[in-house]
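Issue 218. Parser rejects a valid record. Input:
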Amino acid sequence: MRLSLLLASILPFAVSASSQEQIIISPMPQTNKESIASPFTSSQPTLADLLTIEPSASIYYSYARETEWSYRFSSESVWFTMLVPTNKAVMALAQKPHQGPESIEPHIGISEQELDESSKRNVERWVSAHIIPSRISLSDAPVSYETLQDGKLVTFNAVPDTKPDSPEWMRVTLENGVRIIGMKEAQNGVLYLIDGTVVPN
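Output the parser choked on:
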C-alpha cells in the first residue's frame, strides 16, 4: 500500500521532469548526401567473391591465393578471364600443381628452402597458365589468347554439331579437349569452370 502511494505521488513529477528535459534535435542540414560516408556496394561480385563461394573451385583457389596475383582478384583496375579447373580435374592430375612436371620429392642435396621455392614457382606457373589478362571472344574459334604465364597461349577450338543458340562457351573446347562447364561474370572479369586443366609451359 505504501509503495503504491509513493509511486502515485512521484509519478506526476517524473513525467513532468522527463517532458521538460527532452531535447529536440533539429533535422540535418541539406547537404550533398554523397559526402556522407556509406559503404561501397556493387551489383556484381568480384572474381575473389566468386572463387570464395564456388565449392567446386576450392582447390584451384587455395593454390591461387599463394600467388602474387591473388590480390588482383578483388581489384576493379584489372580484367581477368579465369579458366578455373574443378576440384575433380585437379585431383585427377598425376602430378599436383606444386610438384610441377616432375615430382619434387625431398632427397639428399636439396634443402627444405629450395623445395619450398621450387613448389612456389610451380604453383605460380600452373595458376598463371589459367589466367588470361584480357577480355576474350569465343565466337571466332579457333582463337588463341596469351595467359599470364610467359609464352603460354590457350587455344579455343569450335565444337562441331553444337546448337547454334547455345552460349559461346558451350560451343568451344580448350587444348586437349577440355570443356567449359560453367561461366560466371564478375565486375572485374569472367570465370569459366573447366573440366580439365591447362598445361603450363
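Fixed in the parser; the record now loads. The longest strand covers residues 180-186.
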